[in-house]
Specification:
Elements: E1 9-16, E2 23-28, E3 41-42, E4 45-47, H1 54-66, E5 70-82, E6 87-97, E7 111-117, H2 119-122, H3 133-142, E8 146-147
């Protein structure tokens, strides 16, 4: 047994639906070091800062990237991404869009484009999405949400 500990980063992603029941997808403005992210679409996502509450990080990321307010509805699933010498835990949430759809404005430094797709279009074999996006969409389609109230924060300071 080694003395190493796992200290993964924490990412959050969301499924946002509009009044036409379509889901919002975004295209990154630059590649990530682990993925050619600027050539394909994925769900809006971002990293939770150290000691930040999950809900606060979720809301902050959506404000920073899309200038929107959201209401978390439920947890879709937990996902683990392994890379060379690191890993990331991802939490996917269904959220309600509080901001009017026409008021969504992408952060042009972070996002190249936005696009709305139906669940059927997004899950089509012809649609290329970022790693993990189709799995989140399949889980969303197939599972019941764990209510957001089950995501609890304990401040041990």
């Amino acid at each position: 047994m080694t003395n190493e500990t796992i200290n993964p980063s924490l990412a959050v992603g969301v499924i946002i639906k509009n009044k036409d029941n379509k889901i919002l997808f975004v295209q990154e403005g630059r590649d990530k070091y682990y993925e050619k992210a600027n050539a394909i679409f994925g769900l809006p996502s971002g990293k939770v800062d150290w000691t930040e509450k999950i809900e606060d990080g979720l809301r902050r990321e959506m404000r920073e990237e899309l200038n929107i307010e959201i209401k978390p509805l439920g947890l879709i699933g937990v996902y683990q991404y392994a890379r060379d010498n690191s890993q990331c835990l991802g939490l996917a949430f269904a959220v309600e869009l509080i901001t009017k759809e026409e008021d969504i404005t992408r952060n042009q430094e972070e996002l190249k484009a936005m696009h709305w797709l139906s669940l059927v279009e997004a899950l089509s074999p012809a649609t290329k999405l970022r790693v993990g996006s189709k799995e989140v969409l399949e889980d969303y389609r197939n599972n019941q949400l764990l209510p957001f109230s089950h995501v609890r924060f304990f401040d041990l300071r």
